[in-house]
UniProtKB/TrEMBL annotation:
This is Uncharacterized protein. It comes from Catharanthus roseus (Madagascar periwinkle).
Length: 639
């Protein structure tokens, strides 16, 4: 008995000593079930696998060939789907970049604060709003200013976020971006950036969007870290630094200094950088940094920010750059100190000094933006700490959104005019030099076409991702069946498990270990806590023994698990990440810490690093590896 080279035929011995060729019932109907799953799927049941033949060897041989062919086809299918996905992602990125270029690298938006309950409500007559243009009336004078967008008093936080989202995506695509809140004291900068529990502002929304956008895209494995720094009286304060009494404080360098490397990339040496693996964790650290920020009472604002508060999210994308190198991008969100007339705020002593320092650095920021707009050779970055820090995120193709805040009060008309003049310098478009209506329409038409293109690419990507998930699941199941049905039954305990399988089981059974965590980790030998327990071995053993009998139900499970989202889909992408990185085995310490880090919010430990370069550190990136110290500290150091 033998199986012919053409897999569909099998030769069976007859009683008379001759052989008879029989066709095998190969079932590969792409139209049945889910197309993909049946085209590449496992056999429907053990009965179908064995077909009409009873000789176990024939059956095993046939199964093996079919499974191997399935695996080969599925591997090809996954590779080709991934190539398609990559080109669609590139298409979406190009469209987004074009949109941002049309909109302008520096976008200037204006937000008018509503009257507060403590204010005398009047009819706002000195500010007239006409679409995206505002006119300031001061006596008989009228001055008009055009913005990229004007938010009226009724504007909600989500309306503001819609305008910011494209540059967040640009940051995820690998560009440095910067969101700045500018304006007179008490006009709502902190409200726009932080918001309240009921109406979260830009930063909490960005943190949430980072993780949700990232979880949608299984093709990349981004990791994020957060740092917060305050520019106070012309010097830097690390807002996430550990408590002076803590053990970790001793090893950290609490005096951050700004360094620029040969490629013009800015690093803040000694700034604490905390890896964030989920939204809850990110919010916790952000709230901690906010609490430390300097505020004090002034005549104008009860809790006036006395500094510039800069929140940086560093986005690390391994293998996205040329030659598979990592891409590191920065997303800065800056709540600038209030521009103020020192007399009006009633500031004296320390508060007066703070006000002066804020005004000086704001003026330096204005000079830098004006020089960039005019494409001057010399850009005066060095004039303030603020502009030194933001150097690589303001010019050179970075995307900037500046939100200028103004007061609705008539008595603030002087400050409002100053703020708008500042914005005008940044935007360099006055209403008199506005684009003609025809050009505006053309611009909007182009943007809407590009937005459609982006949407289409995203939808296509989404479909492809589902297909990839299906194909990968079927691939792993085919591999599993191949290894169980085509091997001599050996006691489960004796089967040496490959690290791949071991990792996969761990992640699929323990969704809390995120894809990023496992990918980031790498170990020579698996740590003890990753060994399967007696219970899991028993579970695994019995499930594998029953696997062929359960093929049909597995397939229906596949279908439902493919439709899942959120944490479950993360566990699936975790599975992929492990397979991808199974040749890079984690070091015990790294894996342990990453896992602990995921559980940080349960009061355990955290992985924090005072970075000497201000960027993510990864053992897979030779440029970033090594020189940067990892200081792992206990959670209590930061409380
Ligand atoms: N759009 C808004 N809707 C509702 N309340 C707002 C809005 N903007 C600002 N406020 C309220 O106005 C007050 C001052 O706002 P906020 O502290 O954000 O000003 P600021 O510009 O950050 O001031 P400073 O520069 O002094 O820090 C706060 O009580 C805030 O809740």
């Amino acid at each position: 008995m033998y199986i012919s080279a053409e897999k569909e035929q099998i030769s069976l011995p007859l009683d008379n000593g001759e052989h008879q060729m029989k066709s095998l019932p190969m079932e590969s109907n792409p139209d049945s079930v889910d197309g993909l799953s049946s085209a590449f799927g496992m056999p429907e049941s053990p009965r179908e696998l064995s077909g009409p033949f009873t000789d176990e060897n024939v059956v095993q041989g046939r199964e093996k060939i079919q499974l191997e062919q399935n695996i080969k086809d599925l591997e090809g299918e996954v590779a080709s789907l991934k190539t398609k996905e990559k080109s669609l992602i590139e298409k979406r990125r190009t469209a987004l970049n074009k949109i941002l270029d049309i909109k302008g690298c520096i976008r200037v938006l204006c937000r008018i604060r509503p009257f507060l309950s403590t204010e005398k409500r009047g009819i706002q007559q000195h500010i007239l709003v006409e679409s995206d243009r505002i006119v300031i009336k001061s006596g008989a004078n009228k001055k008009g200013f055009a913005f990229d967008k004007v938010f009226y008093q009724e504007a909600r936080q989500e309306d503001v976020f819609v305008e910011v989202e494209p540059i967040l995506r640009s940051a995820l695509d690998g560009n440095n971006v910067c969101i700045l809140a500018y304006g007179q004291t008490g006009t709502g900068k902190t409200y726009t950036m932080d918001g309240t529990n009921e109406s979260p502002g830009i930063i909490p929304r960005v943190l949430q969007a980072l993780f949700s956008l990232n979880s949608l895209d299984s093709s990349t494995s981004l990791t994020f870290s957060i740092s917060m720094v305050e520019v106070y009286l012309g010097s830097l304060r690390d807002l996430l630094a550990p408590k002076p009494s803590s053990r970790a404080y001793a090893v950290s360098r609490c005096n951050p200094t700004i360094q620029i490397d040969s490629r013009g990339s800015v690093e803040i040496e000694g700034l604490t950088e905390v890896q964030i693996s989920n939204f809850t964790k990110a919010s916790w650290w952000y709230a901690k940094g906010r609490r430390v920020r300097s505020t004090s009472w002034t005549n104008v604002n009860e809790a006036s920010s006395r500094s510039h508060c800069l929140t940086r999210i560093t986005i690390y994308n391994p293998g996205e750059g040329t030659g598979g190198n990592a891409v590191v991008s920065k997303l800065w969100m800056v709540d600038l100190g209030g521009s103020e007339r020192l007399l009006k705020t009633g500031a004296t002593g320390q508060t007066l000094d703070e006000g002066r320092a804020i005004n000086l650095s704001l003026s330096a920021l204005g000079d830098v933006i004006a020089a960039l707009r005019r494409k001057k050779v010399h850009v005066p970055y060095r004039n303030s700490k603020l502009t030194q820090i933001l150097r690589d995120s303001l010019g050179n193709g970075s995307k900037v959104v500046m939100m200028v805040h103004v007061s609705p009060n008539e008595e603030d008309v002087g400050e409002t005019t100053c703020s708008i003049t500042f914005a005008k310098r940044a935007r360099a478009v006055e209403c008199t030099r506005e684009l003609s209506e025809e050009l505006k329409v053309q611009k909007e038409k182009k943007i809407s076409e590009l937005e459609d293109e982006m949407k289409e690419a995203e939808e296509e990507c989404e479909k492809l991702r589902k297909q990839i998930l299906k194909a990968e699941f079927l691939l792993s199941e085919n591999r599993k069946i191949l290894s169980t049905t085509c091997q001599n039954p050996v006691d489960e305990e004796e089967i040496p498990q490959s690290p791949k399988e071991n990792h996969a089981n761990e992640v699929l059974e323990t969704p809390k270990v995120s894809a990023k965590t496992v990918r980031k980790a790498g170990a020579n030998s698996l740590p003890r806590f990753m060994d399967s327990t007696v219970a899991s071995r028993q579970r695994k053993s019995s499930s594998e023994k029953e696997v062929s009998g359960k093929v049909r139900s597995f397939r229906s499970e596949t279908r439902s698990s493919i439709q899942i989202s959120g944490s479950q889909s993360n566990s699936y992408s975790g599975f992929r990440a492990i397979l991808k990185n199974s040749n890079k085995r984690p070091r015990y310490g790294e894996l342990k810490n990453s896992t602990i880090e995921d559980a940080k919010l349960n009061g355990l430990e955290s992985n924090i690093r005072p970075s000497s370069r201000g960027t993510m550190v990864s053992s897979s990136d030779p440029n970033l590896r090594g020189s940067i110290g990892h200081h792992r500290r206990r959670m209590s150091d930061f409380m």
